[in-house]
Automatic annotation (TrEMBL):
It is an enzyme of class 2 (transferase). This is Microsomal glutathione S-transferase 1. One of its GO terms (molecular function) is glutathione transferase activity. Pfam families: MAPEG. The keyword Disulfide bond does not apply. Keywords: Acetylation, Endoplasmic reticulum, Membrane, Mitochondrion, Mitochondrion outer membrane, Transferase, Transmembrane, Transmembrane helix. The chain crosses the membrane at residues 12-37, 76-92, 98-122, 129-150. It catalyses: RX + glutathione = an S-substituted glutathione + a halide anion + H(+). Its EC number is 2.5.1.18. It is a multi-pass membrane protein.
Length: 151
């Protein structure tokens, strides 16, 4: 297939990639909103101009806010690479079943990761397992891109 045929609405792999990318993007937006909401709930503001009352002080150490911030940073470290790697993987003309399964694994695992990390805190290994599932699928796709491009 030509690249123009691979990046097309007619390609089920590309459509699935776009769908899961948008779901993950909206999840990241929701987590960003949750971080702001936690700041208001706990009156934890990092900038003096954000303080709602002269009685409040700048704070950086609220555990609830920091947990959501860490989850959001983890998304930035893992979902943004998936956006690039997933698109490049689509260009390798992979098996539709395998590619769609990998995209689903990454999407569902990242949603679970956020839920067990920032929303309903669940003890390990829940967070680690969801992280490894998404990371492993993304690394697999990256290796396939390298193997297809280099050899």
């Amino acid at each position: 297939m030509l690249p123009s045929e691979l990046i097309s609405w007619d390609n089920a792999v590309f459509r699935c990639y776009l769908g899961w990318s948008m779901i993950l993007l909206f999840k990241m937006f929701a987590l960003s909103f949750l971080a702001g909401l936690m700041r208001f709930i706990t009156s934890t503001f990092a900038n003096p101009e954000d303080l709602m009352s002269p009685k409040l002080k700048v704070k950086f150490d609220d555990p609830n806010v920091e947990r959501v911030r860490r989850a959001h940073r983890n998304d930035l470290e893992n979902i943004l690479p998936f956006f690039i790697i997933g698109l490049l993987y689509t260009l390798t003309n992979p098996s539709a079943f395998l590619a769609i399964t990998l995209f689903r694994v990454v999407g569902i695992a990242r949603i679970v990761h956020t839920l067990v990390y920032a929303v309903v805190v669940v003890p390990q290994p829940a967070r680690a397992l969801s992280w490894f599932a998404a990371y492993g699928a993304t690394i697999y796709m990256a290796v396939q891109v390298v193997l297809t491009a280099a050899f």
